[in-house]
Structure formats: structure tokens, C-alpha cells
Amino acid sequence: MMSRAAITKTTAIIIAVVIIIAAVGVGVALYLMGGVPTAPPAKETIKVGFSISLSGKYMTKGKYSLLGIKAWAKWVNEELGGIYVAEYGRNLTVELVYYDDKSDKATAMRLYEKLVLEDKVDVCLCPYSSHLTYAVTPLLDSYRMFSISHGGASVAIFQRGLKYVIQALSPTTKYLTDCLNCLKAYLDDHPDAFPGWPDTKPKVAIIYAKTEFPMSCAEAAMSWCGDNGWPVVLYQGYPKEFTPEQIASLVETAADHGADVVIGGGYLPDAEAIVTQAKALGVNFKFMAFLVGPAIPEFYEHLGADAEGVVGPTQWEPGMGYTGTDEFPFYGMTEDKFLELCRELDTEVLGYDIEYPSYHAAEACAACLVLQKLIEEAGTLDSDALRAKANEVKMTTFFGKFQIDPGTGLQIAHDMAVIQWQGGEKKIIWPPEVRKAELVFPKPAWP
Amino acid sequence: MEAIAIVEALIHGLLLGGLYGVLTLGLSLIFGVLDIINLAHGAFIMLGAYVAYTMFVFAGLNPLVSMVVAFPLGMAIGLLLYRYVVKRVIGAPHLMWILLFFGIMVFMEQAAYNIWGAEYKGVPFSLPTANLGGMAIPYSYVVGFVAAMGMAFGLYLLLYRTRIGKAIRAVAQDREAAALMGINVDKIMGIAFALGIAMTMAGACILIIVQPSIYPLMGHHWMDLAFCVAVLGGLGSPTGALIGGFIFGVVETLVLRLGLIPEAVLAPVVPFVILIVTLLVRPEGLMGARGR
After folding, report:
1. Does residue B122 form part of some domain?
2. Domain count, chain B
3. I want to staple B190 with a disulfide (CB 3.0 to 4.6 A). Which of A172, A216, A329, B82 is the partner?
4. What's the sign of the alpha-carbon dihedral A108, A109, A111, A116?
5. Is residue B271 included in any domain, yes or no?
């Protein structure tokens, strides 16, 4: 049996060995972790994360959106020296963290998880298109990541109780209704243009591609007609991939029902097909307005004189010249500055020179200006604070007015521009405060 | 519905049907001779459309004239593809050529994205519409029909009035017997494959006269339609492809104009209903040989 002194000595040795092992272990752990934790470095940048379609079917629009985002980042960093964030007491520069989502929903979702969890971005921009935005926004909301939609116009995105996502562009409900508002305003000013106006209203045919975006626009147009007493003589969808006859039959039916107005479509091929078939059947409608297609220069390049008089909605056109109002004061870069920046960056982002960017660049840049304003006003990057500030802010950018519905985050102030091809040129005919020409009604007969 | 409207619908159906038939000729010819289904048929329609677009951009050619470029280009592509790729799966299990052509299709679509971009392209080629006794007859339909029938007649002359055509028909009928007769079966199969590709690409130049939008994935829809028309007419029979095209064009037009389906969005069901009925009633198709 060990003596009392021997037990004490053994105990002391054991304790010493344990302490030494523990100390070595802590030291190794600290070494692996990079040293003793110190206070975090001062924040230098605001990391804005997003996925963008640089390949796949949304490639062109995705690249234009990126052009607008980069134009904003360049302006903020080089001309303003960053965004002042009161929480940090200083200007923070903008750092864009983005990846190619390949126009694919699953890829976009993975990338946003990466942006939030690995890249630890501060705020997010949604991807281009309603399709991708619809997919990623629940994920962003679950991570309480404040995000702005610049390319997702679908109302359905915002009907799911999302808390941290807001919309910068006009929703789908305005695309065709603003075209009808334009026509109604014209007829109010020129009642002789339509026999019996205002007691007799034009007959409307709504034919649309049966996919999410056009369906949403068509439903809104149908409601508008109901609210305004315009008879809808045909309301029918057609398949996303169509043959010439499938469109021809709808055009023929619309004509048989005496339609004065034909609206709807889907994308550029749809608008071209409806115009082509209406001409092929020799049917002259008084007013033709279609989604997406007519606002794109290729519409006239492909159809030539057949495109004359066709109307279309667009989120933005160069030369709109918004200046702001007392209620919606102007904020951010001017349109001229935006165009200048786009022309500086076009080769880098698009790979070629442009004179004017598409509206996708403008809406993306405008979304970033909104983000900038909210950060400045809130003084923090906290999602709850940004969302609360978004509920209050009313502003105008070169893209148009901004105000959201506090409950859903839907955009409620931005007006769609409406254009009409006149003499080979795309003329802005609506809204009244920025229009450059008057609607030509009825639409010229086929050449 | 008035009688004149029905007659108008019939005329439109026949005119469009001729185009549908020509778009199917290549698919039928390749199956008839090589015994494989070109699952990239739609991608070659897309490629032909882009050839027409490129010829318009660089040389100002209208789509009909572009056929003169698309056809020999299709022959060259077909010959190269057969020589270095397709030949390896002749006689192989079906899964091999299914995967091969699927891969070719994906490759071509992605290449199109990179070469021409994702945005829609088009060739301005607008023609007026004639009024014939109250019926609207679009010149675009008539021109498309005439060009399509010209191509079909050219194929007929090749197959039935030339030695090469005779050899093609012999190989399609019985490959071993043709070889015993001294026909270079491998060479003939290459020519037939190339001819099928060339016809498809040239047919696409006609297509964009009536359906102007060109984009990388446009071929999927036309592949579905061409397959149904080919089965209706008899896979392997170019004559059957034409007849199937006419029938399909007329049926589609009448079904839609007479309102026999509740919504236009159900229109894609029509070719597949025709496909199912054909398979149930006469699986070999209208002009196909029994037992195939």
C-alpha cells in the first residue's frame, strides 16, 4: 500500500500531465482556428448576392440585368464612394457576389443557399424571370434574407406571405390593363373614333399562351374589362408551343365574334404569330396589343410594315424622362448617367456595343437604387429594418415610381409604359406624363 | 359554320399539310433506310431555320433562296455525321442510337445558344393575302406549299428515276439482298442519312415563312408533330409522310375551326390522338409495310 506522501505526489503528477495535455490541446486548437479570437474586422463592404442567367434560355435578359446591376455598383462605388450606413458610421462600398444560374430553377436554389450560408451576403437580388424568382424566394424568406425582385413580375410570387421580398417592377396585372387604360383615355378624348362611345364599348378578344406570366396578365385584363363594362367576346388560351393553325383558328374566331380589340399573346413568337395569322386571314382589328413582343426591336425587324400600329407594354423605354414629384421625389442617377454607364460596361458584360440597353437593365438598376435608398434610410443591413423601411418609402428613379403594398411587397406605384410602332419607330404613348406620341387608332390596315 | 368557311379551312389545312409532310420526309427516309429514328430531327429543323436567318443577315437572301444553301450544307453535315458517328450504332441495340441522337440534339441546341444567342430571331418575309370568292388565301401558305411540293417531287425523281434512288430503295427493302446485288450498303446508307438531314434543313427554310420565330428549342415541338405524321403515314415511307402531313393538316384545321375541342390549349392533343388511333388500327401506318 502506497504511503500518504506517495499518493499526493502521484496525484500531483497526474494533475500536471492533464494540465499540460489540455494546454497543448488548446494551443493546437487555437493554431488550427487561426489564433486567439479577436474582435471582428470593421465592415468595409455591403455584399449584394444574386444569381443571374448568363447561359440558357434567359441568357440575353440575364446579361442585360447584370449590366444594370453593374452600372449601379460602379456608380455607387466610384462616384458616391459607397453607401452611408449609420450602424457603421461610414460609407460601405458595394461588393457584387453572383453566379450563373444557367436559367435553371434547381441551380438557382442551390446558388442562393450558397450565397446565404457560405458567402454570407448581406442582401440579395432575386434572379431574372418570374419562374426563377418564384422558386428561390421562399428559400430566401426562410433565411430572413432581404431581397428585391427586379425581373419577377408575376403576382403569384407575392401571394405566399413572403416577408422579406419586395418588388421593384410593375406586376403582371398592369401589363395589359395599362394598354387598355391607354385606349380608354384616347377614346375619352376622341369619342368620334369609335361609333357609340362611351355607351358602346369595343369588343375585346383575349388570347394568351397558357403559361404563368401570360395567364396572369390575361386574368387581370379580363377583370379590367368587367370593371369597365367592355364585352369580352373571346377569352381563350393556346399551348406554349403552337402551330400556325392553332393561332389562326383563334384569330378567325375573334373576327367571327366581331372583336374590335385583340390583346394577349405571351412572348415574341406569340405576338409575331398572331400578327402573321391576322394578316394571313385578312382580318383588320382596330387595336392589337401583345405582351413582350412589340416592345422588342426584333418585332419590327422580323415583321416589317406588318408591325405598324401594334401596341405593347414595357417596363421602361429610353427617353421617358421621369423627374419625380413631391409625393414621389426623385432619387439616384439620371437616365443619362444610366445610359452612359451601360455604354461603358456593355462590351464587358454583353460582349458587344449597344446604343440603348433593354428595359431589363433599367429595372435591375432601379431595384439596386431602391436597395441603396432603403439601406441609407434604415441605417442598417438588418432585414427587418429594411423591410419596415420599404413599407414607407415612396420615390421615383429614372425607371419610374416606387412604392410597395406593405402587406405583400407587390409594387403598386410603377406604371407600365405603352408603346406603339408608328412609321417604323417605337413611340411611347402612355403614361400621359411621359408619352412622346399619341395612340394611332384604329390600327392601320395590313399593307 | 358556313360552307365557304369549311372550304377555306380545307384549303388552309392542305396547304399547311404539305409543309408538315415535307418536314417529316427526312425522318421517314432515315428510318426507312437505316432503321433508326433520328431523335435529333427537331434540332436539324432548328439548324435549317438558323441557316436561313444567317443567310438573310449576311447575304440578304430570303428563306426560299436559302434552301439552296441549306440543302448542300445538310448533305455535308449528314455525310460527316454518318461517317464518324452514326455508322457506329447501325445494328447496335436501340438504346445506343437513342442516347446518341439525344446527345446530338442537346449538343446542337447548346451550340445554337452559344452561336446565335437565346433571343428570338426571324427573317422578314411578308406576303399579302388573296381573296378568292370570300376565302382568305395567304400567299405565304401557297408559296410554302409550292416549295414543299417542289422538294417532294425532287425526292421522288431521285428515288424513282436515278440509280442512286434505286439503290436507296433496295437497301431500304432488304439490306442483305442489296449487298449481294453489289450495292455498297454503307455508302448508300450514308447518302440516305445525309439526304434526310438535307431535306429537313431545307424544309425548315420553308417553315419560317409561316412561323417566323427562330430559337434554339424550337425543334422540340416540330419533332413531336413530325413523329406523329411519320407514324400516321408509315415510318419509312416518304410518300406516307406526305400523305400523313396532308391528313394531319386538314384534321388539325377542321378540328380547330369547327370548334371540336373545347379549348385551343388542347390542340396538341390532336396529333397524339391521331398517333394512338393509327397504332391501334393500322400500326404500320397508311403506307408502311406490314410486319415492320
Report:
1. no
2. 1
3. B82
4. positive
5. yes
CATH number at residue B28: 1.10.3470
Residue of chain B minimizing CA distance to A209: B265
Smallest CA-to-CA distance from A138 within A113, A117, A120 is with: A113
- Give the residue among B77, B237, B228 at the shortest CA–CA distance from B172: B237
**CB distance from B163 to chain A under 8 Å?**
no
For residue A445, the tally of other CB atoms under 10 A from its CB is: 10
Tracing cell 401571394 back to the chain, one arrives at A159
Of A60, A298, A303, the CB nearest to B126: A303
Q: Does A191 touch chain B (CB under 8 A)?
A: no
Q: How far is CA A73 from CA A43, A45, A76, A110, in A?
A: 17, 12, 5, 24
Residues 6+ away with beta carbon under 8 Å from A377: A389, A393
CB-based contact B256 A249, cutoff 8 Å: yes
With a CB-CB cutoff of 8 Å, which residues 233-252 of chain A face chain B? 236-239, 241-246, 248-250, 252
B256·A279 Cβ contact <8 A:
no
Taking an 8 Å cut-off on Cβ atoms, the answer to whether B124 and A304 are in contact is yes
B 36-65 → A contacts, CB under 8 A = none
CB A300 within 8 A of CB A424: yes
Closest C-alpha among B131, B76, B63 to residue A279 = B131
Confidence (pLDDT) at A51: 98
Q: Rounded CA gap, A138 and B286, in Å?
A: 53
Domain holding B166, by residue range, is 3-117+127-281
Contact A412, A403 (CB under 8 A): yes
Q: Which segments of chain B have a pLDDT < 50? A: 291-292
The one-letter amino acid code at B122 reads: G
Contact B252, B13 (CB under 8 A): yes
Amino acid at A302: H
Residues 6+ apart with CB under 8 A from A262: A204, A205, A207, A251, A254, A274, A278, A285, A287, A288, A289
Taking CB atoms and an 8 Å limit, are B124 and A302 in contact across chains? Answer: yes
User: How far is the C-alpha of B183 from the C-alpha of A337, rounded, in Å?
Assistant: 72
What pLDDT is recorded for position B211? 84
Alpha-carbon distance of A296 to A356, in angstroms, equals: 12
Q: Mean pLDDT score of chain A, rounded to an integer?
A: 93
Give A446's DSSP letter.
P
Which residues in chain B are closer than 8 Å to A273, comparing Cβ atoms?
Answer: 211-213
Q: Within an 8 Å CB–CB cutoff, is residue A297 touching chain B?
A: no
Q: Which residue(s) pair with A418 in the sheet? A: A313, A430
User: Which DSSP letter does residue A78 get?
Assistant: I
Residue with cell 413568337: A269
Flag whether B291 is in a domain.
no
Give chain A's domains with CATH numbers: 45-170+319-402 (3.40.50.2300), 174-314+417-430 (3.40.50.2300)
Q: What is the CA radius of gyration of chain B?
A: 19
Q: Whose CA is closest to A356, among A341, A377, A372, A371?
A: A341
Q: At residue B107, what is the residue type?
A: F
Q: Is residue B94 part of a domain?
A: yes
Exposed / middle / buried, residue B121 (Cβ in 10 Å: 0-12, 13-18, 19+): buried
Beta bridge partners of A425: A422
Inter-helix orientation angle A359-378/A335-349, to 10°:
120
Residue-level pLDDT at B210: 85
Residues B50-109: pLDDT tens digits?
999 999 999 999 999 999 999 999 999 999 999 999 999 988 899 999 999 999 999 999
> A232 CA to chain B: closest CA distance, Å?
16
Kindly report the nearest CA distance between residue B158 and chain A, in angstroms: 30
Reported pTM: 0.80
DSSP designation for A433:
T
Determine the pLDDT at residue A56: 86
Q: Which residue of B has its CA nearest to A267?
A: B120
Instruction: State which residues of chain A have pLDDT below 50.
Output: none
